[in-house]
Write a structure and sequence with these properties.
Blueprint: E1 12-15, H1 24-32, E2 41-43, E3 47-48, H2 49-52, H3 57-61, H4 69-78, E4 81-87, H5 91-101, E5 109-114, H6 119-122, H7 134-147, E6 152-157, H8 165-174, E7 180-183, H9 197-209, E8 216-219, H10 225-234, E9 239-242, H11 245-248, H12 262-280, H13 293-296, H14 303-312, H15 316-332
Parallel strand pairs: 1-2, 1-9, 2-4, 3-4, 4-5, 5-6, 6-7, 7-8, 8-9
Helix pairs in contact: 1-4, 5-7, 7-8, 8-9, 12-15
């Protein structure tokens, strides 16, 4: 098995899987402005193995695994690794779908979602609910590992209603995932409250005491690349995963991550919208794109007003017109 987790430079930095966010378009946008020494791993959106196992659902769910030709080129040129994140609760289905996806040479690994706290997912016993069924969780990891030559990692949380890192993490260590990415919040906390990095450090200590060499990455409230480096050092971790922090600064992993000028932000917005339209067209609702507008329209005079105008746009040509007018006003000043 080619386990890239043990080969890439530390501290490892990864862009977290996020629903309706980390599609092939957004990954390309972020990688295109990132230093590959600062960003080594990117993830797909959450991909349901049961949906992939259904002849009709597979078409729609499979869109989450699409890798555009331009993204393929970036992955090849930068050496950044792309991981397919999968979720469900049936070990047999995991085995079947992971085996199928493994045929796609664009992926360098798999990650099993044992952290998502969304209610309609949890009530079906999936994702973070697996923390409460450790034996099933272990069966799933084993089934996935047996289905592929690629490394299988796990992204999870510290517990359900309270931190149980000391009970939960040893279960995962038993089945030797390629890496463990630990969000320092419980399922109940969702994204609220401060992430507990002491619990993440505890997981690393448990790993060491077990005599394992499994990389542990921390996740939660990382404000900048340097902040991530400091957290990894302080808590003796092999790396850090960035989620919502990318919305504050899409240049998070750039050689120069300082706040960009208004014109650069608006140029990036147009590039993102154009690429989104090229890749998805009518396959995806245009409104999904609007969640990204806020990451480019901030930090300059009139940003709020411009953002309001963009939120009213219904197609690419309207976005282009709004931005062209705003750029003209900016240049005239």
């Amino acid at each position: 098995m080619n386990n890239f987790w043990k080969e890439i430079q530390q501290p490892i930095f990864a862009l977290a899987p996020m629903e309706d966010v980390t599609d092939t378009v957004f990954r390309e946008i972020v990688m295109g402005v990132s230093d590959p020494k600062k960003l080594q791993v990117v993830y797909t959106e959450f991909t349901n193995v049961d949906g992939m196992n259904h002849p009709y659902g597979k078409i729609r769910v499979g869109e989450r695994l699409i890798v555009s030709n331009s993204e393929k080129a970036l992955l090849k040129n930068t050496g950044i690794k792309l991981v397919a994140q999968v979720w469900g609760k049936n070990p047999e289905v995991f085995h079947k779908i992971v085996k199928e996806i493994s045929q796609d040479e664009n992926f360098s690994g798999f990650d099993i979602n044992m952290g998502c706290p969304v209610k309609n997912v949890v009530k079906n016993g999936c994702c973070s609910a697996l923390i409460g069924t450790p034996e099933l969780a272990k069966e799933i990891v084993i089934a996935a590992k047996e289905a592929t030559h690629l490394p299988v990692s796990v992204k999870t949380r510290t517990g359900l209603s309270q931190h149980i890192t000391e009970e939960w993490i040893p279960h995962l260590l038993e089945v030797d995932p390629a890496a463990i990415i630990l969000h320092g919040r419980t399922q109940k906390m969702q994204s609220n409250g401060a992430a507990n990095w002491e619990q993440i450090e505890l997981a690393a200590q448990l790993r060491t005491l077990a005599g394992k060499e499994i990389p542990i990455l921390g996740n939660g409230d990382v404000a900048s690349y340097q902040h991530g480096v400091e957290l990894a050092q302080k808590h003796q971790l092999e790396g850090v995963m960035i989620g919502r922090g990318i919305f504050s600064n899409p240049w998070f992993f750039a050689s120069n991550d300082a706040d960009k000028a208004k014109t650069e932000k608006l140029q990036m917005l147009i590039r993102h919208a154009t690429l989104y339209n090229e890749i998805w067209g009518i396959k995806k609702n245009f409104n999904i794109l609007k969640r990204f507008f806020k990451i480019y329209t901030n930090g300059f005079d009139g940003a709020s007003k411009l953002r309001g105008q963009l939120m009213e746009a219904q197609k690419l040509s309207e976005v282009e017109k709004i931005i062209e007018e705003e750029m003209a006003i900016t240049i005239a000043k």
